[in-house]
Amino acid sequence: MASKEQTLFRHVVQNYESKQYKKGLKAAEQILRKNPNHGDTQAMKALILSSQGKSEEAFELCKVALKNAMKSHVCWHVYGLLYRGQRNYEEALKAYRFALRLDPESAQIQRDLAMLQVQMRDYDGYVQSRRTMLQARPQNRQNWTALAIALQMSGDLAGAEDVLQKYEESMRQTPSRGDMEHAEAVLYKNTIIAERGEMERALEHVDSVAKMALDKTAVMEMRAQYLLALGRKEEAVEAYTKLLRRNAEHREYYEGLEKAMGLDRSKTEDHQKLGEMYHSWGMQSDRVDAPRRLPLDFKNGDAFRQHADKYLRRMLKKGVPSTFANLKQLYSDPEKKETIRELVEGYISEQPHTNGGAERSEPNGSADGSHPTTSKPHDSATTWELSLNYFLAQHYDYHLSRDLAKARKYIDRAIELKPSETDYTYHMTRARVLKHAGNVAEASKAMNEAREMDLKDRYINTKSAKYQLRNNQHDDAVATMGLFTRKEAVGGPLGDLLDMQCVWFITEDGEAYLRQGNLGLALKRFKAVFDVFGTWEDDQFDFHSFSLRKGMVRAYVDMLRWEDRLREHPFFTRAALLAVRVYCLLFDQPLLAKGGGVNGEGAEGAAERKKAAKKAKREAEKVEAERKAAAAKKASPAKKDEDGEVKKEDADPLGVELLKAAGENPLEEAMKWVGPLLEMSPRNVEGQVAGFEVYIRRKKYLPALKCLLAVSSIDPEHPKCHEQGCRLRLALEKLDEPLPEKAKQVIDSEFLQRFASKGSVEECNDEYLAKHQDSALHVQGAVRVRHALHPDGSGDVKEKSVSDLQHTLDSASTTLVQAEEGLRVLSEVVGADGKAREAYVGKARERCLIREMLSLLLAAAFATLSSFATAHTGAETEHTQGQEPFVGWTKDDLDAKWGTDWGFSGISTFAHLPHTRCLQHPDTPYDIAILGAPFDTAVSYRPGARFGPRAIRAASARQTSFRGYNPRAALNPYREWATVIDCGDIPITPFDNALALRQMTEAFTNLAFSRAPRESVESGVGYRRKPKLLTLGGDHSIALPTLRALNKVYGNVAVVHFDAHLDTWHPAKYPSAWVDPDNPNEQSFFTHGTMFWVAHNESLILENKSVHAGLRTRLSGIEDNEDDTAQGWVRIACDDIDDLGAAGVAKQILDHVGTETPVYLSIDIDVIDPGLAPGTGTPEPGGWTTRELIRVLRGIEGLNVVGADIVEVAPAYDGVGETTALAAAQVGFEVLTSMVKRGMGEDGKGGMKVRDEL
C-alpha cells in the first residue's frame, strides 16, 4: 500500500483500540476503495464489526480476508479473536498458533495465545509461552512472576520458586519499602515454599521479608500457622495472642490459640482452662463478643446453663437483634436448645422494671433495628421485654424448634410493645413466620410493609422483592428492585438486573415462572443464570493481564483456583436442578414445547386448530405493526451500554423460541447442566438424582447406575434410592436390544445383586411401602413405582395410591413442602379426579399444611388435563370419521357449517357462549366466566330477582361471537385473547339464607381459584393470569359472598358501586330487625342493603378507595351518610352528572380508585331511571339513562376489574319490551369489553404488558 493508506491502516488499528468504531470503519472503507482486496484491512474491519455486535457479517468478511491474504498474521490473529469472542476457544487457539507461526516475534499474538492457554488451563502450553515471553523481555518483572505462576499451576513448585529466586538475584538494587509489586511477590514466594511442605524454611523466609511486606496481617497469620505446624507452641501462643490483639472477633485465631496451648474442646478436663482463657479475653473489652460466645460451643450441663444465662442477659439487655443468629448453631444439640428456651421463657416471668438484673436502657441504632429513632418508648415496654419476645419469635420460627403459633404470638407481642419505635427488623421476622406457615401472600404483604418503613435500605428492599417472587408477583418484584436499579438501563429494571448478574433474583424469578407452568420464561431465566456463570468464567481474561500488571499475585492465584470450582456454587446447583426438571418434562411431554399443537400422529389437533383460527385475525393485524416497528428500529440508532458497546434487544422476551429449541433435543440441553453439576458437586444428593433422571431417559444405564450408587453411598435411606432403583430394574427388563457384555457384567455385580435380590419389583415396592408408610417422601416414591408398574391405573391401583398419599397427612413429621409434593404426585402420577384432590387439600388444610394449595392443585393437574384433552380429541376424530356422511370433513368444516345460532335459536346462554357447569367441572379453563346467582330472599321490598339471570341471558340473544364487534373499543370481546364461557347458575336454596350465603361463598371461592387457559398464563400479561367472574343476580346481597371469595385471591379490593342506594346500612336500620349486636352472624344481618356494611366489618373492602355512583335514595337521617363515610366510601350523587357530565363522573372515579388497585364492579340496575328500567325490586325515580350509565362504564375501562356483578333485575315488573333485561345485557357486554381490553394492553393489540393485579 501507499504511505497514505499505511497511515490510514494505523488509524484503523488505533480507532479499534480506543473503541472509536465509526471512525475506524470510515478509515477502512477509504483503504478498501483503493485496495478492495487488502486482507489486513478487511480483517480489521471484521474485528470492528464484531465489536458492534455484527458477528455473522464479521466472520464472513474475515474469511474473505483470509482468502486474499492467507499468509497474513493479522488476518489469522483477527480470526482467532473472533472465535474467542464466540467462546470457541479451540478454534481460537488454532488461529493464534498459525498467526504466531507466521510472525514469531509478535508480542501481541504471543500474549493473546498465553491468555487463552491459561483460560483453557493448558498449563504446559502456558509455561512454554511464558518462557518465550520472558526470553523476549527479561527486564519486565511481570514476565518472571507470570512464569512462576504457570509453573506453580502446572505442579512444578520447585521450578516456580527457582524462577522467583533468580529474578531476586538479578535485581541490581533493592526495591523501596513501598513497592507493592515486590511486597506481593515475596509473599507469593513464601506461599510456594509453604505449599512445598517446607515449613521451617517458610518460617525463616517470612521472618526475613516481614519488614518489606506491606500486608502485615498476612505475615502475622503465616508466621502463626508455621509455628503451630512446627510444634513450636510457646511461640505460636505469642503469635496468636498478637493477632487477637489486632482482631479479637476472629474465631480462627481462637482456634489456633487453643491448639497452641494444647487444649482440646472434646476433653472435659480441658474445659476449665479453656473457660479461663476465654474469660481473660472477654474481660479485655466490654464490646467484644467472640470470647463470650465461643465457650457455649464446648460447655455442657450446668456450666452451659450458667454461661448461657450470663451471655443471654448481656445480649438481650443491649437489645442486639442478632442474638438468636449467634446462638442458633447450638440448636443441633437438643439439650442446649432446651436450656436456651427455658432460660429465655424464664426471663418473661420477671417483672419489666427489674430488667433481668439490668438497668432500663434505650435501644440504639444497631441494637433495635436499622436506625435510631427520636420517639419515646411505650410506657410499658423496655428493651429487655422487646428483646425477649423477639428472641422467642425467632426461636419458635427456627426449623429445629418450630412452633409457628407461638412464633406468631411473640412477634406480634414484640411489635405491640413498642409500636412507635419498632423498626423493620420485627416486621421482617413476622413476614418470615408467615412464609414458614405457608401463607406466602400475607408474607409478601408483611415484608412489603417492612420495606416501606425504610425506603432507602437496599437489604429490606431485596427481601421484599424475594418474597414477592415467592408469591409469583413478578411485576411487583421487578418494580421493587427497580427502586435501586439504573433508570436508563436497556430493558428497564429487569434488564439492569440481568446486566448486573443478580443471580438470586433471576433464579427466584425462574422458579416462580416454573411454579406457574410458564416453561418458556422459566427456561429463559435459568439459561440467564447459566450465561452468568459463563460470563464469570470469561471475565478471567481481564484479570490474566490486570493482576500481573498490578502485582496482585496471591489474589490472582486464589481466583484461578476459585474459577476451577466455579460451578459448585449453590446458585448454579439450584438453577441446574430446576432446569433439568424442565428438560425432563419437555422430553416426557413434547407437546409442551410446541404449545400442545400436535397429536400422536403428528397432525394438528382440532382444539389447537380452533385456537389458531381464533388467533389468525389478531396475528394478521400485528404483521403491519411489526413491519413498521422494525423499520423504525432500523432507522433509529442502536442503544449502547456504558462502555459504548451495542446493547442487543431481546428478540425472544417470553422464551417461546427458546422453549421450542429446547424441545428439539431436551436431554442434550440437560446434559449441559448435568455435566458440571456431577463434576463439581459429586456429594450433592439432588444433583445425583437429577443425573439419573437424564441418563435413564437417554438409556445410558451405566452412568444412571453410577448416579444411583452415589445416592446410595451418600444417603442409603433416601427415598429416591428405592424409586430410581426400581425404575432402573424395569428399564433393564424391557431392553430393546441386549447390553454389551462388559456393561452387563458391571450391572449384574454392582446393581442386580445389591438392589434386585428380594423378589419382583412389585413385591419389593409393597414391602418398602409397608416399612415407610408414615414417611411422606418414601410413600410418594413408592406410589410412583406402583404407577410405573401399572400406568393405566387398572384395578384398585388408583384407590390404593390415593389412600396411601392421604395417610401421609396423618403423620406429624409431614411438612408443608412434602404435602405439596404429595399433591403433585396425586395429580400428575396417579391422575386422581377433582374429588380426590379436594379431599387431599381439605385434609392438608386441617393440619395447616396449606400454601396456595388450590392454585397448585390446578397447576399440578395440567398434565392430566392435557392428556385427557388429547385423548378426547382423538376419540372425537375417530367417531367423526366413522360416520359415512362426514367422510373427509374436519371439525373446522363442521363448525363453520353448523356451529352458529340465530338470535332466536339455540339454548339460552349469555350471548350464545359455550356452556359448562363449572362447579361440576372445576378443571374447565377460562379467562372470563358468566355465572348466574338466582337468589332474592334477602330483599327489603319486591322479590323476583331470582329470575334475573334467565332474563338477562334471554335478552343477550342478539349478542353473538360472529357479530360482537364493539366499535367504540375496536374489538370483539368474544374473539380476542380471552376464553369466555357461561358457567350456568349456582343452585342456591330459597329456604335458608344462612345456607344460601354459605353455598354462594363456597361456589364463588371454588371458581375464583380456577385456572386460566395455558396461553393466557404464558402470555406474560399479568391481567390474564387470574380468571374473572361476571355474576348475574339475583339481589344485591350476592356481592358479600363474592367479596369473601375475592379476598382469598387478591386480599382487600376496592368496590365501585353503581346504585340508587347506599347498601352500607347497619342491619338495625330496618324495622322489626330484632338485631342482636353481639351476634354478627345472625341471618338478619345479611340483606341486599347491608352487605357492604358486613363486608367492611370483615375487612374485605379497601378503605378510602371505594365509590358509590348514582345515589338518589331517601335516608333515615344524616347519620346514614356519616356511617358511610366512616366506612371509607366516596359518594357521587345521581344529580352530579348534570354538572360533571358522564366523562367527569368517570374521571372522578378513576382519580379516586386508580388504575392498579384490584376493583370489584357492582352494578345495581336500579341506578337507571325506572322509566327506562322498571323491572327491579326497589325502583327510585330520577335515575340515569341507560346511555349515561354506559358512557360512565366506558370512561372507567382503565380500572383493574377483577370481578363484577349486575343485579336486581326482576323481570316480573318489566314491560313487554323487556327494557330492563336488555339494559342489563348491554351493560354486561360493556363490562366484558372493558375486561378484555384491559388484558390486551394500552396499545390495543396485546403487545403491552399489563401490571398484575396481585
TrEMBL record:
InterPro entries: NatA_aux_su, TPR-like_helical_dom_sf, TPR_rpt, Ureohydrolase, Ureohydrolase_dom_sf, Ureohydrolase_Mn_BS. SMART domains: TPR. TPR repeats lie at residues 73-106. Keywords: Hydrolase, Metal-binding, Repeat, TPR repeat. Pfam families: ANAPC3, Arginase, NatA_aux_su. GO terms for cellular component: NatA complex. It comes from the Eukaryota. Residues 348-380, 598-650 are annotated as: Disordered. One of its GO terms (molecular function) is metal ion binding. CDD domains: Agmatinase_PAH. Residues 618-629, 638-650 have a biased composition (Basic and acidic residues). Residues 371-380 have a biased composition (Polar residues). PROSITE patterns: ARGINASE_1, ARGINASE_2, TPR. Belongs to the arginase family. This is Uncharacterized protein. It comes from Friedmanniomyces endolithicus.
